[in-house]
């Protein structure tokens, strides 16, 4: 398996997961490409592993197929999906900070899985009053 970066899934693995998601959703490549806002040849190159999918493209495909970004990207644990973390310059306990950050990210992941929106619009707040 070719790694894009240390610990990241291979491009062809992402393409295979996208192809399975497309088939599960009962969509043709052309229909999925339309729903995801890309050309069918671009989607074909992503699926075949000839081209790496960009994060916004994976997100659009996820929405169009009813999957999550993590499922299509092959990232299973929240800790595996964290790409960047703040750094401490004042001698703070980095492991403690990391654990607290992961707890918030895991909560966010849970809320996403439950389809609970990250923000509430002003219209929703006004409606609930």
Overview of the molecule:
By secondary structure, the protein is mainly α. It is built from 8 helices and no strands. The chain has helices spanning 11-24, 29-36, 40-48, 55-65, 69-73, 78-81, 94-113, 122-128. The model is unreliable at 1-8 (pLDDT under 50).
Total DSSP helices = 8
Identify low-pLDDT runs.
1-8
Structural class: mainly alpha
How many beta-strand segments? 0
- Strand content bin: under 5%
Mean pLDDT: 77
Question: What about the largest sheet?
Answer: none
Brief characterization of the structure:
This protein has helices spanning 11-24, 29-36, 40-48, 55-65, 69-73, 78-81, 94-113, 122-128. Mean pLDDT is 77; it is low at 1-8. The chain contains 8 helices and no strands.
Describe the secondary structure blueprint for this structure.
Elements: H1 11-24, H2 29-36, H3 40-48, H4 55-65, H5 69-73, H6 78-81, H7 94-113, H8 122-128
Give the tags.
8 helices; mainly alpha; 129 residues; disordered N terminus
């Amino acid at each position: 398996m070719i790694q894009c970066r240390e610990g990241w899934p291979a491009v062809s693995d992402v393409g295979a997961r996208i192809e399975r998601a497309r088939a599960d959703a009962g969509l043709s490549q052309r229909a999925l490409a339309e729903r995801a806002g890309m050309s069918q040849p671009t989607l074909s190159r992503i699926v075949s592993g000839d081209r790496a999918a960009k994060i916004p493209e994976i997100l659009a495909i996820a929405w169009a197929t009813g999957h999550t970004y993590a499922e299509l990207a092959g990232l299973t644990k929240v800790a595996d999906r964290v790409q960047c973390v703040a750094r401490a310059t004042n001698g703070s306990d980095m492991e403690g900070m990391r654990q607290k950050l992961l707890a918030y990210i895991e909560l966010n992941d849970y809320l996403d899985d439950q389809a609970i929106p990250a923000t509430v619009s002003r219209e929703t707040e006004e409606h609930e009053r």
